[in-house]
Amino acid sequence: MGRESRRATRRPMSGTVLVTDTMTEEVIGRIGNLSASGVLLIASKPLVEDALYQFRFALPDNNGAQTVEVGSHVLWIDGASAPGQSWVGLRFLGLSTETTQRLRRWAEAAASPAPK
């Protein structure tokens, strides 16, 4: 696997983590990968490029799952191969220090080698 070149480590999501638009309470897609600064969303609902959204998802961890709510800015949208889906790159906005640290720890946990 190649070395991560982004500023924030991204971790692929294992399993399905659904993302809800908090304004409409509709599930708009699922997470492809996640970092402390953004997410690759596999969207099943249309989103608007350069728009702002408020999303909620359950971050899986060793204690089950913790709900995370994030402000997000749509940076880009690209068509996916599945009909009705698109790839969406989002940057998080205005996260609390606690949420940022929690996302960073979660993303970096997969990048750390397992103890021997």
From TrEMBL:
Residues 5-107 form the PilZ domain. Gene3D superfamilies: predicted glycosyltransferase like domains (2.40.10.220). The lineage of its organism: Bacteria, Pseudomonadati, Pseudomonadota, Gammaproteobacteria, Lysobacterales. It holds the Pfam family PilZ. This is PilZ domain-containing protein. GO terms for molecular function: cyclic-di-GMP binding.
